[in-house]
Design goal:
CATH superfamily of the largest domain: P-loop containing nucleotide triphosphate hydrolases
CATH topology of the largest domain: Rossmann fold
Strand content: 35-45%
Shape: elongated
Radius of gyration: 24 Å
Structural class: alpha+beta
Number of domains: 2
Strand order of the largest sheet: 6-7-8-3-9-10
Bound molecules: adenosine-5'-triphosphate, magnesium ion
Length: 352
């Protein structure tokens, strides 16, 4: 079994009456890159700060290499955190900012210089070591903050939206490099973001949070293709959420349209299901062997590599359909959405 570096057990956190983290259980393996993903205010920073030691949980245990750490202050844990608002020391140069933790640990000068130089190189900050934070752009400050954490060789590296101020191109390249060094060093990392493409592209494991509750923990593909709640299905990528009724015999129905499913379903029970826009095509006629739903095209957006159609069916439900390699002739009027039954993912029973 893989070695577990960090464990959260039954974590609860309140701010006054506001219950912001609810019964969180999570374990992180050594060398794993784990992303906390969720909308603004869902508790990502709060959870990260508890791991770093800046907040104490009201209930629960945090174990680092099997030892309880909830009562240990930040500097006594072997974690390093990059804050959402970078928190650089304004009166210190870039070099001194990055070297700060190493100085506190009384690292020999030669080793310190080597580590700082490597971090400067990595974060594409070479030549800026003498500048002060107010002489840097937001993106450069953010990279200094990452470098400052990296040089510490922490047991767990904690990054709170560390690339949010970088322009798209730089973000992409720093993302790739960060992931590469994380893998090379075998650095256990928790990365916070609300950018789903960042989460999907970087993570070994994604933790999807909403209102302080973990909705799902899984690989990028599990989260994308096998969402466990309607929230996860809708938050990651774009999807069509449907309500389908079990009709027994391995079949669900959408109105009077039958859809065979490979999991067991109970007759009369209503299920949430999801089908991605890229799994559907529009056609003027029903297609043999496929599910087809008559729809009316209401709107469309030409996006170059694809056309995104907004269509509505006879139940009044609107669908999104992405047609790739669209050519110049766009569809209009009454058509069918056409898709293989296997592309319909049954999320679970609907409450009502
Ligand atoms: N120090 C604090 N005192 C009181 N309430 C707080 C405090 N910090 C956070 N909260 C509240 O706790 C909840 C979770 O906040 P948190 O900062 O963890 O969210 P987040 O997921 O990091 O959001 P964002 O993506 O906007 O950074 C929010 O409702 C927030 O208002
Ligand atoms: Mg935050």
């Amino acid at each position: 079994m893989a070695e577990c570096v960090l464990q959260l057990k039954g974590i609860n956190k309140y701010f006054g009456k506001n219950h912001v983290i609810k019964n969180v259980d999570l374990s992180i393996e050594k060398g794993e890159f784990v992303t906390f993903l969720g909308p603004s205010g869902c508790g990502k920073t709060t959870l990260l700060r508890m791991v770093a030691g800046f907040y104490e949980p009201d209930e629960g245990e945090i174990l680092l290499n099997g030892k309880r750490i909830e009562k240990i202050p930040p500097y006594g844990r072997n974690t390093a955190m990059v804050f959402q608002e970078y928190a650089l020391f304004p009166h210190m140069s870039v070099f001194d900012n990055i070297a700060y933790g190493l100085r506190v640990k009384k690292t020999p000068a030669a080793e310190m210089e080597k580590k700082v130089a490597a971090a400067l190189e990595l974060m594409q900050l070479r030549g800026m070591e003498k500048r002060f934070p107010n002489q840097l752009s937001g993106g450069q400050q953010q990279r200094v903050a990452v470098a400052r954490a990296l040089v510490m060789d922490p047991e767990v590296l904690l990054l709170d939206e560390p690339l949010s101020n970088l322009d798209a191109k730089l973000r992409e390249s720093v993302r790739v490099e960060l992931r590469e060094i994380q893998q090379r060093m075998g650095l256990s990392t928790i990365y916070v973001t609300h950018d789903q493409s960042e989460a999907l592209s970087m993570s070994d494991k994604i933790v999807v949070l909403k209102d302080g509750i973990i909705h799902q923990v899984g690989t990028a593909q599990e989260i994308y293709f096998e969402p466990k709640t309607p929230f996860v299905a809708d938050f990651i990528g774009t999807t069509n959420l449907l309500k389908l009724t079990g009709s027994g015999d391995g079949e669900v129905r959408y109105g009077n349209i039958r859809i065979p499913v490979s999991r067991s379903v109970s007759a009369g029970v209503v299920y949430h299901a999801s089908i991605r826009p890229e799994c559907i095509k529009l056609a003027e006629k029903p297609v043999e062997g496929m599910v087809h739903v008559p729809v009316h095209i209401e709107n469309r957006m030409f996006l170059g590599e694809k056309v995104r159609y907004f269509v509505r069916d006879n139940n009044g439900k609107s669908w999104i359909v992405d047609m790739f390699d669209p050519g110049r002739d766009l569809l209009e009027g009454d058509v069918y959405t056409v898709f293989p039954a296997a592309k319909v993912w049954i999320i679970g029973e609907a409450e009502e």
